[in-house]
Amino acid sequence: MNQKTTYAQQIKKEAKRLGFLSCGISKAQFLEEEAPRLEHWLKENRHGKMQYMERYFDKRLDPRLLVDDAKSVISVLLNYYPSETQGTETYKISKYAYGRDYHHVIKGKLRELYEFIQDAIGEVNGRAFVDSAPVLDKAWAAKSGLGWMGKHSNLLTQQVGSFYFIAELIVDLELAYDTPVTDHCGTCTACMDACPTEAIVAPYQVDGSKCISYFTIELKEELPTEFSGKFDEWMFGCDVCQDVCPWNRFSKPHSEPLFDPHPDLLSMTKKDWEEITEDVFKKVFKKSAVKRTKFSGLQRNIKFLKKADR
């Protein structure tokens, strides 16, 4: 067995020990297939008011512009599927935001993985990325054989579905590389048929500016009235395309205590949400990703849903 393979196996074993679902590795190079797709998506204004998507176009497509002399992209998946979910008669938040903000949880684990690489292998330079830098996470995870891109544009894995976070370490170390897996969506269009705002405009194409997650998290202004009554009671994010996906029958609850929700979260009724105070917001969402929308943003979303309910 050559050194590159030995190193790759050591890294994958450590990633598993740290609690990651899986780990795959691909060669750090320009994303040729993704470049025209991203350009077209931006030209069509599918990113809505997410101006940050227009920035760092070149860096999004080439990891060597993020890490000097980058050789490998190490992609990891971390499960967040909860053992319990909110009831049906309430305003909903996306399952990924139930517990502690994933950026901090994953960054800590990636830091440990990076330290392991330096201890076990030697002087390796690199950077950890968790959804907050110009890296096309899903593209790299697919290249690394961790799953395929579903028609809803989320990464899908036969064994566990899609309720997981994706993150990566980009390093200047050459490793043995994995190969992509085949697409197993077949003729299924469950996600496209179920999307409340028809944001999945074609297989593998999502109009971000029509997505409930975009409206409830990214959009900072008033919500457009033409979408009134189409939010399916989602007040932060949306899981519809994942909830209806047949592959998510295989989702298993995570084992990360930091992702467990605040005890009050699951029992809150519509009335509780409508009367939520800033103190309760701070208590229930302490260190949560929901803080991104701020108290005022969540209130705006709840008012929008309440109005449509009447």
Automatic annotation (TrEMBL):
Keywords: 4Fe-4S, Cobalamin, Cobalt, Cytoplasm, Iron, Iron-sulfur, Metal-binding, Oxidoreductase, Queuosine biosynthesis, tRNA processing. Its EC number is 1.17.99.6. Pfam families: Fer4_16 (PF13484), QueG_DUF1730 (PF08331). It is found in: Cytoplasm. The keyword Zinc does not apply. [4Fe-4S] cluster 2 binds at C195, C211, C238, C241. Monomer. Catalyzes the conversion of epoxyqueuosine (oQ) to queuosine (Q), which is a hypermodified base found in the wobble positions of tRNA(Asp), tRNA(Asn), tRNA(His) and tRNA(Tyr). This is Epoxyqueuosine reductase. It comes from Croceitalea dokdonensis DOKDO 023. The gene is queG.
